[in-house]
């Protein structure tokens, strides 16, 4: 992906979250803690799912991929942010900025696809329990995960390919802590109308294409749960999808608002970006472990085996 021939800007200046050195020090400690928790939580989730045979089911197969994706997503932006919080000059090359934007789009695009797939898995488990094994066979699960990654890569490639051909002449300041595609458009001296249309259409199509299956899956799930006569049965059925609903709520709202709203450099944009790219990867393993008895039991079994081996 070659850059435009007339670009005179070779690097951008990231303004970050604050210009106050004292606040930057506090933010460094805060985001370092968040990043370490993200790494520890998602790695633990992946290792426990791999080590415990009780979790070798489609639901946890998808969850292990979600943990890997959250680990990647956080690592795309947070290490650079931590470095900049300790630096006086927060610069990034144009090619580095485009690369970071590319991987942000891949991570976000793949995550919405994976959340949609996980909603279908809950639909199959609750609405068609007798056919669950047939509906969620291993080959299909692998294909669904690969499709999520493929759509994420395609979405990122289209938008970054167009962004890579923009010219950057005078403006070089990005009012953000990372390079997200919408933040590049105000800096370009080229016509960005095609870029805006492509970003809006791809975000809308990708978003609706993954969100509508979630809505339809949960409409069927709610209908099935309400038809269960016993209170304990309804509670058990709902508990199996409550974690997923929480994860969807955390991610979808902030991610879509960030990419569909006009870029203005407001603090609200920074909040949305922090929520979906920094906070959500940290809380996802907590949501799925604290609300899931199987995961908590698997963690205890795994720790027990580890202590026996070390002893």
Features:
single chain; 311 residues; mainly alpha; 75% helix; disordered N terminus
Q: Trace the largest sheet across and list its strands.
A: 2-1-3
DSSP strand count = 3
What is the chain-wise order of helices and strands?
A: EHHEHHHEHHHHH
How far apart the termini lie comes to: 54 Å
Number of helices: 10
- Major sheet, described briefly? 3 strands, mixed
**Global geometry:** globular
Structural class: mainly alpha
Q: Could you list the spans in which at least 5 consecutive residues all have pLDDT below 50?
A: 1-5
Keywords: Cell membrane, G-protein coupled receptor, Membrane, Olfaction, Receptor, Sensory transduction, Transducer, Transmembrane, Transmembrane helix
InterPro entries: GPCR_Rhodpsn (IPR000276), GPCR_Rhodpsn_7TM (IPR017452), Olfact_rcpt (IPR000725)
Organism: Equus przewalskii
Domain G-protein coupled receptors family 1 profile: 41-288
């Amino acid at each position: 992906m070659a850059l435009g021939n007339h670009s005179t800007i070779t690097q951008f200046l990231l303004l970050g979250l604050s210009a106050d050195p004292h606040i930057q020090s506090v933010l460094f400690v805060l985001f370092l803690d968040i990043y370490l928790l993200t790494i520890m939580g998602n790695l633990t989730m992946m290792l426990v799912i791999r080590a415990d045979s009780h979790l070798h089911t489609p639901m946890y197969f998808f969850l292990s991929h979600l943990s890997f994706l959250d680990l990647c997503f956080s690592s795309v932006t947070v290490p650079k942010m931590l470095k900049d919080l300790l630096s006086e000059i927060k610069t990034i090359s144009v090619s580095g900025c485009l690369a970071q934007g590319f991987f942000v789009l891949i991570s976000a695009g793949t995550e919405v696809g994976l959340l949609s797939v996980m909603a279908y898995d809950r639909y199959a488990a609750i609405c068609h329990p007798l056919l669950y094994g047939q509906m969620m066979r291993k080959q299909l699960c692998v294909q669904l995960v690969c499709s999520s990654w493929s759509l994420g890569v395609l979405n990122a490639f289209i938008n970054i390919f167009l962004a890579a051909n923009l010219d950057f002449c005078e403006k070089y300041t990005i009012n953000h802590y990372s390079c997200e595609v919408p933040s590049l458009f105000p800096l370009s001296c080229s016509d960005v109308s095609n870029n805006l249309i492509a970003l809006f259409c791809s975000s809308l199509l990708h978003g609706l294409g993954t969100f509508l299956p979630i809505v339809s899956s949960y409409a069927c799930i709610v209908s099935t749960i309400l038809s269960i006569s016993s209170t304990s049965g309804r509670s058990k059925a709902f508990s199996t999808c409550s974690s997923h609903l929480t994860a969807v709520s955390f991610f979808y709202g902030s991610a879509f608002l960030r990419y569909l709203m006009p870029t203005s450099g407001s603090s609200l944009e920074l909040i949305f970006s922090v929520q979906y790219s920094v906070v959500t990867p940290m809380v996802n393993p907590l949501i799925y472990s604290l609300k899931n008895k199987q995961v908590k039991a698997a963690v205890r079994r795994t720790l027990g085996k580890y202590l026996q081996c070390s002893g």
